[in-house]
Amino acid sequence: MMLKRLSLALIGLLIAGAVQAAPLKIVATSTSMGALVREVAGTRAELTVLASPDRDLHQLQAKPSMMRTLRGADLVVAIGAELEVGWLPVAIGSAANPRIQPGQPGYFEAAAQVDLLDVGGPADRALGDVHPVGNPHLDLDPVRMATVAGALAERLGQLDPTGADAYRRAAAAFAERVGQRVEQWRTRLDGAPGVVLYHRDAIYLLQRFGVPLLGTIEAVPGVPPTGRQIADLVATLKGRDGVILFAPYQSPQAPLKLAGDLGWRAERLSLEPPLDADGDGYLNHIGRWVDAIASAR
Ligand SMILES: [Zn+2]
Fold it and tell me: Which CATH architecture describes the domain 22-181?
């Protein structure tokens, strides 16, 4: 019996040694987090993204396929600030993988690496608000994403010390490209009249470039608007310039009604970059948002 245990332990050690040489198995909750993983880890990681870019990360359901993926993961990369609270903790709990439990080196949240907006505001879960600990949609801010990439590089270096230098170099190169694009976008968006959002999901991007948020179609995050709220928005914004931006999973009815009443453009834009995006794919995605914001009239 004792011998059997010893030999099992020995096999375990041999397997652990073999696993260390293999790429890190990384699970990203969103395509924005996946883009950072691709950019920073490159071929040193085997990446799985749990949610396709058109899905509503607030509303996803934990699925058996997620749990199977998480069971073998070395690292989970989440946006955090409770954006994935409805499904990720359940999926991680069911995966029974001690490496990726919150608090372990195998669990990483972008929101924990940067300062958040909407913290301690009038937000109240009793009113239906989905963001009681602060706004989690930081992934639309390229500057915060560069900070997150730096923190991710450090975490990857902790899990895979032989790659530490490569991770750091990749994150630094990404931060430099972000800096260049942000300068161009700053010029482009100078004087932009402003945006109406469906949900406060692009506020980090607007704040980064000093673009006014003229209103939100939902009055409380996560609660659909009433006809009265839309009428109030029309009354407030009539005669001004702006553009209405909403996500694929948000109902187009109120945005299109508002656009018609105001004579504005309404544009449906994904909050997340394409499934195969890397750092450049992510920056092109932000470029599409910048174009839409600049199209306000
Ligand atoms: Zn949200």
Answer: 3-Layer(aba) Sandwich (3.40)
Centre of ligand 1 from the C-alpha of residue 9, in Å: 46
User: What is the 4 CA–ligand 1 centroid distance (Å)?
Assistant: 52
- Burial class for 115, CB neighbours closer than 10 Å (0-12, 13-18, 19+): exposed
pLDDT above 80: residue 15? no
CATH 3.40.50.1980: which residues of the chain? Answer: 22-181, 190-294
Widest CA span in the chain = 83
Helix or strand or coil: residue 196? strand
Residues 223-266: tens digit of each pLDDT: 889 999 999 999 999 999 999 999 999 999 999 999 999 999 99
- Cα(200) to centroid(ligand 1), Å: 6
Report how far ligand 1's centroid is from the alpha carbon of 72 (Å).
29
Contact yes or no for 149/174 (Cβ under 8 A): yes
Is 3.40.50.1450 the CATH number for 190-294?
Answer: no
135 C-alpha to ligand 1 centroid (Å): 7
Residue 198 CA to ligand 1 center (angstroms) comes to: 10
